[in-house]
């Protein structure tokens, strides 16, 4: 079969770095291959894709000893703006890549740069919209799209270019299981029907393995091995799900959170959530699941007082949340955001962890002890003076967790804390939450990963179309498979 | 009825410049009042309400009150009404303040109306027609696209600060919290601009000297005449102001 991508890299070194970021990679990808790339944090997965697009070294300056060839051409000789003839590249965060105001303009952006006639542009855009089933929102604003819609639009804007190779970096990291499965089905169709060579950096859902024919395993900047999917699954089998083996003790008498018919309507008229009746008992470890845009985050923001209910009331620790008492109530809660970078603003890890202790009436020695204890808990002891942005995303999430728990909150709310993290990093974050739960903290976790909900929480609530529709014990999840399939949260398979 | 949004951006720019230059040149309160009236009429014609001008109007009233105080304290037009120590109040302070307020209102509301009624891609096309390389001209719609994205980023940063006990509700709290919010915001802005520039480069941005546009701008005879009439009106007003 015809070779499409040929990589032979002895070393790729960034300026002022001693260690090579990529080394000893020899890989030959045939036309029509569907390759899944996997590996731990900072193993060089994204960088490998950057070398194929030639963004490294043209966009990210570095020295490469070796060659990368696409369709039998050395990418070093192709200007970056001509790479669209060879590869289409989709990065992790779709909102960062859309640069037009409307969906139609975004889909037409690449082909318009090719200086094609308006008739040809329209024909290509319409075909892609129909292929991805996005005809309905051609004139919508790109900043009003949901995560799944945005992913499809970015994919569409690349497909209009008709590149023979498609590179995707964790395309479903922030999507719910149904949207994620749908996107992979589209990719498989493109691969099959248009014979487009596809390379996908795999996220922890492993959905891509259903369609891939080979798996490249990266480790410390080198290609550890390239296996068939069967061999990979046999070798890296993870049948034993990571479980929360620590006890969860629930005090049925004490309410920590109570939502009494709470609703929130955004100023734009969009419904956030509707008529939510929900009680969280002391010590509960509750997981909230639901599709993208089902109202999970809005519900958390109502609880935390970041949004006011337009109807109904919110009670925290037995007290109705008002503008006057929210600051006091927040001292007893900790909120972990999906993106740790929203939360981190100090210039050292120690300063970040100790931020909430500023101005608190407690001895300097006591403050230092608390900081050191927290650093130890989140596994960052000895990193006191390191700048937070030098940490990996998983470590930054742990740092954010540390900055929350140092305040000893009774309730910890975590909004998709494992999204964008690999399996190992996710496990670290979840294990810390499980430890805190065993210490008696009440945990409210929003997640897209149903196995996280099943194996770490004791209770699961399901949101659908802005309403809370199911509430059951986590170990009874299998009994609710049919209901989850009906609301399209699952695709007819057990977890 | 003319759809203002569909007009060629060059007509809208000429009208906007006419408003601004006339407001700067004109010494007549009536003329400035007429210009402000025109802005209001256009707003009602295009939007069927004045909602879009509500926030700028509040800000202009605040600025207007400052203009009034400055003119009260430092204005020297008209006859002396009152004097005490260093403080002297002259009779012309109210008319000078109204004139200043009208000028600032016409300039700012005229510019806002132009920005709101002109598609950023049309501005880019206008710049390309003026031989600005499209790589630079396209920065206008790209900036317009990322403005709401950055506003949302700032809001999410403020939310995360609020939950850590840094209040971010009032204007003063926002100002106080700005240094802490700036670091993550700059970091996010850099990452977004990095991703966006790589993404557009890999979609052929800058490959040719020009690019296609979904709705190319084309000036009609009517629009050409409109531009000519606006220029004639401005020159007439200028001559009237200078010589009469």
Automatic annotation (TrEMBL), chain A:
<dbReference type="InterPro" id="IPR017871">
    <property type="entry name" value="ABC_transporter-like_CS"/>
</dbReference>
<keyword id="KW-1003">Cell membrane</keyword>
<feature type="domain" description="ABC transporter">
    <location>
        <begin position="257"/>
        <end position="490"/>
    </location>
</feature>
<keyword id="KW-0067">ATP-binding</keyword>
<keyword id="KW-0547">Nucleotide-binding</keyword>
<dbReference type="GO" id="GO:0005524">
    <property type="term" value="F:ATP binding"/>
</dbReference>
<dbReference type="InterPro" id="IPR003593">
    <property type="entry name" value="AAA+_ATPase"/>
</dbReference>
<dbReference type="InterPro" id="IPR050095">
    <property type="entry name" value="ECF_ABC_transporter_ATP-bd"/>
</dbReference>
<keyword id="KW-0813">Transport</keyword>
<protein>
    <submittedName>
        <fullName>ATP-binding cassette domain-containing protein</fullName>
    </submittedName>
</protein>
<dbReference type="InterPro" id="IPR003439">
    <property type="entry name" value="ABC_transporter-like_ATP-bd"/>
</dbReference>
<dbReference type="Pfam" id="PF00005">
    <property type="entry name" value="ABC_tran"/>
</dbReference>
<comment type="similarity">
    <text>Belongs to the ABC transporter superfamily.</text>
</comment>
<keyword id="KW-1278">Translocase</keyword>
<dbReference type="InterPro" id="IPR027417">
    <property type="entry name" value="P-loop_NTPase"/>
</dbReference>
<dbReference type="InterPro" id="IPR015856">
    <property type="entry name" value="ABC_transpr_CbiO/EcfA_su"/>
</dbReference>
<feature type="domain" description="ABC transporter">
    <location>
        <begin position="7"/>
        <end position="245"/>
    </location>
</feature>
<keyword id="KW-0472">Membrane</keyword>
UniProtKB/TrEMBL annotation, chain B:
<feature type="transmembrane region" description="Helical">
    <location>
        <begin position="221"/>
        <end position="243"/>
    </location>
</feature>
<keyword id="KW-0812">Transmembrane</keyword>
<feature type="transmembrane region" description="Helical">
    <location>
        <begin position="12"/>
        <end position="45"/>
    </location>
</feature>
<feature type="transmembrane region" description="Helical">
    <location>
        <begin position="57"/>
        <end position="75"/>
    </location>
</feature>
<keyword id="KW-1133">Transmembrane helix</keyword>
<keyword id="KW-0472">Membrane</keyword>
<dbReference type="InterPro" id="IPR003339">
    <property type="entry name" value="ABC/ECF_trnsptr_transmembrane"/>
</dbReference>
<dbReference type="Pfam" id="PF02361">
    <property type="entry name" value="CbiQ"/>
</dbReference>
<keyword id="KW-1003">Cell membrane</keyword>
<feature type="transmembrane region" description="Helical">
    <location>
        <begin position="81"/>
        <end position="102"/>
    </location>
</feature>
<dbReference type="InterPro" id="IPR051611">
    <property type="entry name" value="ECF_transporter_component"/>
</dbReference>
<protein>
    <submittedName>
        <fullName>Energy-coupling factor transporter transmembrane protein EcfT</fullName>
    </submittedName>
</protein>
